[in-house]
Specification:
Layout (H helix, E strand, L loop, with lengths): L2 H8 L5 E2 L10 E3 L12 H6 L4 E4 L10 E3 L3 H16 L2 E6 L4 H12 L5 E3 L9 H7 L7 E5 L7 H9 L3 E4 L7 H4 L2 H8 L1 H8 L3 E5 L3 H7 L5 E5 L6 E2 L1 E5 L2 E6 L2 E8 L4 H13 L4 H10 L8 E5 L2 E6 L5 H13 L5 E6 L8 H14 L4 E5 L1 H4 L8 E4 L2 H7 L8 E6 L9 H4 L1
Parallel strand pairs: 1-2, 2-3, 3-4, 5-7, 5-8, 6-7, 8-9, 9-10, 10-11, 16-20, 17-18, 17-20, 18-19
Antiparallel strand pairs: 12-13, 13-14, 15-16
């Protein structure tokens, strides 16, 4: 079946599904394969649960007029998404970066939805499956689509760009994330910059943080850019006011008081602001959108629990974001400050050095107690009496009562696999 014909069938469906546990009635089900599952084996289950069509790539499951046999289900999903994107002619904004992608995406969506019908990536479905699903969730009445793109190796962003064909793009930053896959920081910069390369090749607009030296250097001679800066008069001026703990800033002398903590969220808020300005969203609507946005999903959440103020930032971590979170905690004007830090994953050969760097940094900052958790952190060395290490979460749990935590501001941060949000139950 040609992709045009498949698209015609898709338009008669109620969206897409890839998981029979969350299947939508009259949807098009894609029987994807993974290391530990084969979606083809769920063909009949999907039909029984109400799928209108099931896309399969194993002939023995082609037993119904509702099953459509293709060479490769994943490649078909990607091709259909790319065709649908061209069919819609929707304006697409793509964003990537080492830190802050999902928060920035949500902020941009909050701002633009004040004026436009938008569709944005759900959660962090930002990979070779998530991006196609995001595009297929858009309809003819979607005026602007906001597509988050994640990557852990070279050529991945380029691949996603060729599916989504963005008209605009923004890179949050270049940090020490996925060093194992990218082969180092230079690989990270090269990989994330694939978004720039695509936009420049197609003469499309780029949004940028003009205070980021890497972005300025790469885009110095490119004309179609719109950026923000605290100091560079050639770009839109945004003034940082405070971050104790919530980020407050000014645009055109209008004060915006967010519910996001940490100076590191300032640039995320700035990006959403200037993208709103570019698309002519009224400034007071931008203010309302940003002030009403509340973080969730273990990202920069503030949780009050008796005498404790908890900064839950346990969705993920890398050396760049860990450093920013620790420095932010140290600057808070609170009496007692405590950090629970979990291992940072996907650092490859740099793991030992980067965990030691974070341990060394934490010991020097204005933080009263630092509890480091995981094999990598447990192997670091420190003479500081402020640092106590635990080889695993269970080890921390067994000794937790002896820590005697009260009347404190607490940072909880670690990679997703550490699941440090479990500390909430202990607190």
């Amino acid at each position: 079946m040609k992709i045009e014909q498949l698209h015609e069938l898709f338009l008669t469906c109620n969206g897409t599904s890839t998981d029979t546990r969350k299947i939508a009635k009259n949807s098009m089900f894609f029987a994807l394969k993974g290391d530990n599952f084969n979606g083809n084996t769920f063909t009949q289950t999907a039909l029984d649960l109400g799928a209108k069509y099931v896309i399969i790539d194993e002939v023995k499951f082609n037993t119904s007029k509702q099953t459509i046999l293709v060479n490769n289900v994943l490649e078909t999903l990607q091709a259909l998404a790319s065709y649908h994107r061209t069919y819609l002619k929707t304006t697409i904004i793509a964003l990537t970066g080492s830190n802050g992608k999902t928060t920035t995406k949500e902020l941009i969506n909050a701002v633009l939805s004040k004026k436009y019908k938008t569709t944005a990536t759900v959660g962090n479905l930002n990979n070779h499956i998530g991006v196609p699903l995001t595009l297929l969730a858009m309809s003819k009445d979607t005026q602007i689509g906001i597509v988050e793109m994640g990557a852990n190796h070279l050529k991945e962003i380029d691949f996603l760009c060729n599916i989504a064909k963005p008209d605009f793009g923004y890179i949050t930053n270049f940090g020490k994330a996925h060093l194992e896959g990218f082969g180092g920081v230079e690989g990270v910069i090269k990989g994330k910059s694939e978004l720039y390369n695509y936009l420049i090749k197609n003469n499309n607009y780029i949004f940028l943080n003009a205070d980021d030296s890497i972005q300025i250097e790469k885009l110095n001679s490119y004309i179609k850019k719109f950026g923000f800066s605290e100091t560079n008069s050639n770009f839109f001026k945004i003034e940082s006011v405070s971050a104790n703990p919530f980020v407050t800033f000014k645009i055109d002398d209008i004060l915006i008081e967010s519910k996001l903590i940490g100076k590191y969220n300032f640039t995320n808020l700035c990006a959403a602001s200037i993208i709103g300005k570019y698309f002519n969203v009224p400034l007071m609507d931008i203010k309302t959108a940003l002030e009403n946005y509340t973080p969730s999903n273990n990202r920069s959440q503030i949780i009050e629990n008796g005498s404790l103020k908890i900064i839950l930032d346990a969705y993920n971590a890398n050396p760049t974001s860990m450093k920013a979170a620790l420095e932010n905690l140290s600057k808070l004007k609170d009496n007692t400050k405590i950090a629970f830090l979990g291992d940072m994953f996907e650092l490859g050969n740099e793991a030992e050095k980067e965990h030691q760097n974070i341990s060394d940094l934490a010991s020097k900052l204005d933080i009263d107690s630092i509890y480091i958790v995981g094999e990598n952190f447990n192997n670091t060395k420190s003479n500081s009496t402020k640092i106590k290490s635990f080889s695993s979460f269970n080890a921390l749990k067994e000794n937790f009562n002896s820590l005697q935590i009260e009347n404190a501001t607490i940072l909880i941060k670690g990679s997703r696999g550490m699941a440090l949000e479990r500390i909430l139950e202990l607190l």
